[in-house]
Amino acid sequence: MFKSKQLIIFVATGALLTLGGVSATSYSHGNVMVNAASVQQQTQYQIQSASRRRLRVVKHDARLWQHPYNPGVKSVGNVDSLAGTNKVVHLNLEAKVDGKVRYYQIGRQGRTLGWIDAKDLAIPKVYMLPYRYVSQFWPSHADDACEAASLMMALSVKGKGMHTPLRNVVKRIPRSTNPQDGYTKDPFKLGTGASIYPRALAKVSRQQFHIRAKDITGASKKELIHDVTHGNPVVFAGSYKMRDTQSDHSLVLLGYRRGYFYFADPFSKRYGNVIDGWVSTSQFMKIFTAKKRGARALLVY
Fold first, then answer.
1. Chain centroid, CA 26 distance in Å
2. Where is the signal peptide (predicted)?
3. N or C terminus of the chain with fewer C-beta within 10 Å?
4. Cβ atoms within 10 A of the Cβ of 18, count?
5. Each residue of 95-154: pLDDT tens digit?
6. Is residue 239 packed enough to be buried (19+ CB in 10 Å), middle (13-18) or exposed (0-12)?
């Protein structure tokens, strides 16, 4: 990853450069840093992080490039499978010219796709993060481990744990009388009241999958919207199918459209059945902030 505001000129492999009167050739697909006067017909880009920006969707089929475009830069494919859909992409890096963004490096589900012209992207009306559904019942039978199952779905947004059995993850989580430190009771047996809180789940994310996570208990609606529209899922304390019940359950927040949150619920007992849906933000906050749940939440980012 390039440092913020670093001046970089991307040059195709084999391009002849003159550096202080000495000819030099770039022998890899990497970047070569030179002064503006050294290369003719090469656009100078300022490369910096784009993580502060919201997710985007691809407006139409477009080329992807190995680097921000310059003559000789290789194409790495196109975005036809994403074009005109609601499939969101992350913005990893941005390339600016005279303060204006010309290209973005985009990615999806933990995989970098390439650089795309900024004009080919649009801000979506509906945000739905890509993820892999994980049930607490099948195929692993960690029947009381709704928190860990929700964490696995959140990690899949980042491309992690895609083929890791839930049972293996739960086995490695410490047991404790304090849910801030590990699972209480038996998470493999339904109805035991096993529980684990965000602080301990954050350690699971960092130690087992090397993905950043933090306790955001008490997060506001505005903060939750910000998190999910920037590509970061949230594991939260709620209720079954986000109905206004007395159940104490964990789910994962994976999307947003005006007035509604999108969630996935791991409490699916029938093999292959996915429980997910939309809930109004007002209903969500009512359930989330109920005294028995205390607005517990974990951000995976």
1. 34
2. 1-24
3. N
4. 13
5. 999 999 999 999 999 999 999 999 999 999 999 999 999 999 999 999 999 999 999 999
6. buried
For the chain, which ranges sit under pLDDT 70?
Answer: 1-40
**Percentage of residues of the chain with pLDDT beyond 90:** 84
Rounded Cα distance between 153 and 127, Å, is: 16
Residues 6+ apart with CB under 8 A from 220: none
Q: What is the pLDDT of residue 41?
A: 80
The answer to whether residues 256 and 232 touch, using CB atoms and an 8 Å cutoff, is no
Q: CA 46 to CA 101: how far, in whole Å? A: 9
Exposed, middle or buried by CB within 10 Å (0-12, 13-18, 19+), for 237? Answer: buried
Task: For residues 68 and 132, state if they share a domain.
Answer: no
Say how far apart CA 220 and CA 123 lie, in whole Å.
Answer: 23
**Can you give the pTM of this predicted structure?**
0.86
> For 14-41, what is each residue's pLDDT tens digit?
333 333 333 333 333 344 444 444 445 8
Cβ-based burial of 221 (10 A; exposed 0-12, middle 13-18, buried ≥19): middle
In a domain, residue 275? The reply is yes
Token duo for residue 263: 């969630």
- The predicted pLDDT at position 25 comes to 36
The answer to the question of residue 1 being in a domain is: no
- Distance between start and end Cα atoms, the chain: 17
Give the pLDDT of residue 147.
Answer: 99
Of 124, 144, 160, the last residue of a domain is: 124
Residue in the block written with tokens 């036809």: 80
Are residues 76 and 96 part of one domain? yes
103, 190: one domain = no
Residues in the chain: 301
Domain boundary among 77, 104, 124: 124
Give me the pLDDT at residue 246, please. Answer: 85
